[in-house]
Amino acid sequence: MKRLGLLLISFLLLAGCQISGGNNSGSTHSNTIIDWVDFLKWDDQEYSGIHSAVITDEQFIGEKVGEVQFNVNENVSNPSYQTRNGDAAYLDKGTDIYEVKGISGMLAVPSDYSINGYKLYYSQNSFDYQWHFEDIVMEEVEKIEIYQEQNNVIISSISNAEKMNEFLDLLVNSEKNPVYEPKTKNGDPDRYSMVFYTGDAFAYQQYLSYDGENYYWHPWDTAVVSGDIAEFLGK
Q1: What angle do CA 222, 145, 184 make, to 5 degrees?
Q2: Same domain for 77 and 109?
Q3: Which of 46, 230, 103, 79 is nearest to 156 (CA)?
């Protein structure tokens, strides 16, 4: 009986600890890590970050509409949090927000990490995501720029029609290989940003990698590109 009593007391003590923890109003979220999507909320609309397009030129940046008021990634751990105007996932408080001239439903914010100096956001209420490689009208491409991704240093600018067609053909005719595994024995692959200008306020952006053996990219599935593309990279 004495042994049974001790076991019963131990059980009650353990149960009491669990209930105490559950009643702590902040405990259920204190260690919660939220994987936020890259968003910006403005004028009661949620804008999503565009990762495959950049502003064509600063001349397309319009009027300032406001500033980011709150960074949720750094301050919110409650999954039930309701976003408000001025909230952003990864933008610092005080970041300026601008219109993009001629495109309703698109905003721009200054960014040291984006080519041409601004990161773009779009409202899903205005249009669907439309910045895939397959969305580019090839006949409308006026210029292609290639950058080293690490520091956004331009290494090539192609505006000759014949050369642009050669470059585009290499991408279009790349060989799909969804299971391709980059060779990383000698370090991380080299990464390049390819920017396609079509005369719009935004330019399309895709990424090319080189692992020491092959060039490859991800128009949708991974695809291996002919080594002839090295000619355009100053190789």
Answers
A1: 40
A2: yes
A3: 230
Exposed/middle/buried for residue 88 (C-beta within 10 Å: 0-12, 13-18, 19+): buried
Residue 144 and residue 218 share a domain: yes
Name the burial class of residue 165, with classes exposed (0-12), middle (13-18) and buried (19+) by CB atoms within 10 angstroms of its CB.
Answer: middle
Rounded Cα–Cα distance for residues 79 and 85 (Å): 18
Neighbours of 34 (CB within 10 A): 14
Range of the domain at 70: 39-123
Residue 39 CA to residue 185 CA, distance in Å, equals 36
User: Tens of pLDDT along 106-158?
Assistant: 999 999 999 999 999 999 999 899 999 999 999 999 999 999 998 999 999 99
Is the sign of the CA dihedral 74, 79, 81, 86 positive or negative?
A: positive
pTM value is: 0.84
Q: Which residues are CB-neighbours of 107 under 8 A, at least 6 positions away?
A: 40, 42, 47, 65, 97, 98, 99, 100, 120, 121, 122
Domain boundary among 74, 98, 123: 123
Pairwise CA distance, residues 193 & 218, whole Å: 12
**From CA 158, how far away is CA 171, in angstroms rounded?**
15
Antiparallel, parallel or unpaired: β 202-210 and 215-217: antiparallel
What CATH number is given to the structural domain containing 200? 2.60.40
Q: Kindly state whether residue 13 falls inside one of the protein's structural domains.
A: no
Q: Same domain for 105 and 159?
A: no
